[in-house]
Amino acid sequence: MTDGLLLSQGAGQAIAGAGMTLKVGAGTSRAWSVFEANIAPGFDVGAHLHGHGEELFYVLDGELDLLAFEPRTRTASGWTAWESASGARVLRGGPGSTMFVPPGCPHAFTNPGPAPAPHALPVRAARPRALPAGDG
Fold first, then answer.
1. Has this prediction a pTM greater than 0.90?
2. 3-state secondary structure at position 79
3. SS3 104
4. What whole-number distance in Å separates Cα of residue 53 and Cα of residue 73?
5. Calculated CA dihedral for residues 17, 38, 42, 97, nearest 10 degrees
6. Can you list the alpha helix ranges (DSSP code H) found in 67-125?
7. 66, 58, 69: which is closest to 102 by C-alpha?
8. Predicted confidence band at 127 (pLDDT cuts at 50, 70, 90)?
9. Which of 44, 62, 32, 49 has its CA nearest to residue 122?
10. C-alpha 48: how far from chain center
11. What does the alpha-carbon distance between residue 16 and residue 57 come to, in Å, rounded to a whole number?
């Protein structure tokens, strides 16, 4: 039987300049990465997509504007004004708000508030990753 991983608050691998800490990565899991992120006021990741993998955003505190849909029209005014063909719009999400992003789905987030917005970001790999020799 293999033991799991337990991390105390603040533990993990800090990612310099990104405001993120890697909690679980390829050295621990074949399928998951988990990040703790502290999004600074005004930060905007910009709309983008990934061809593989899934992401899940869970807001712990503060507010984030969240997008996870293909827009009807990609307007020049930016992604925060986008609307989907079904009428979905950007969500301003506070603590407990969740955004699931399947592969190929345009998504974005920004912190519109005056304070940092911490969130948890689990990412599932599209295909299982091999662990380094001796870890699996």
1. no
2. helix
3. coil
4. 25
5. 150
6. none
7. 69
8. low
9. 32
10. 12
11. 20
